[in-house]
Specification:
Length: about 240
């Protein structure tokens, strides 16, 4: 994080906490969130990831162990090697959505809609891509931004009024923001390259990276729809094979 931004967050946190004493505890809470945003550690990110995973597992329908989806995922990940010896735990969400995500505590969640679209090798590239976001700590900045945004809402809420009431009612979405955070083009490219190396590490045909990106490149249900240029990304990966 930029040093000036970090110092600004600390200064703003102090202001919130001091004003919170005069207004209510919401201001103090907002100040604490800003401090967390300024000083977030890898341990903080892992703890929030575990909380987010628990929350998402409770909201989604998880494929039972004897289902075709769970059995397929178990089979293709049975002997998977991971960089950094990251310990992964896998589950399938039964939904037509085309998506997957990984988090810093080793959580990997794959949607059945994605499994229907992908071959085994392509699916492993997508999983490698998501693990790449974890490896490169792309979520850490999202975590900071989520805390800063929550602090802003609490800051408004601490002063009451209609806006304050609405802000207070919107709290509690920090874990969800960690899961649904969007990444920059540069971060997506880093994750693509990591996914390619993930395939190579596990002796899987790297062409699966190219075909997976092409499949995910368009359509309203595309998990990469917020990041146009999948053809270019596929070409970039192809050039590295």
């Amino acid at each position: 994080m930029n040093k000036k931004i970090k110092l600004s967050l600390v200064a703003l946190a102090t202001t919130f906490m001091m004003s919170g004493c005069a207004v209510n505890n919401m201001g103090v809470s907002a100040g604490l969130d800003l401090l967390k945003a300024a000083t977030v550690s890898n341990e903080n990110v892992k703890a929030m990831a575990a909380s987010a995973a628990s929350s998402y597992d409770a909201k989604n329908k998880i494929a039972p162990e004897d289902s075709k989806y769970a059995q397929r995922l178990k089979k293709i990940t049975a002997n998977i090697k991971t960089p950094d010896d990251l310990k992964l735990n896998y589950k399938v969400y039964l939904t037509d959505d085309i998506n997957a995500f990984a988090m810093a505590d080793g959580t990997v969640r794959v949607y059945s809609g994605l499994m229907d679209l992908m071959t085994d090798d392509e699916l492993l590239f997508v999983m490698g891509h998501e693990i790449g976001h974890v490896h490169h700590q792309h979520s850490k900045e999202s975590y900071r931004m989520a805390y800063a945004a929550q602090a802003a809402r609490k800051g408004v809420a601490s002063y009451g009024g209609t806006a304050g009431s609405l802000a207070a009612g919107s709290l509690g979405g920090l874990a969800e923001k960690l899961v649904t955070s969007k990444f920059s083009r540069g971060e997506e490219s880093e994750a693509d390259e990591f996914g390619l190396e993930f395939l190579k590490l596990n002796n899987i045909n790297p062409q699966a990276a190219v075909s997976a990106l092409k499949k995910l490149g368009g359509g309203k249900s595309s998990m990469f729809s917020s990041h146009p240029g999948s053809k270019e990304r596929a070409d970039a990966i192809k050039s590295k094979i």
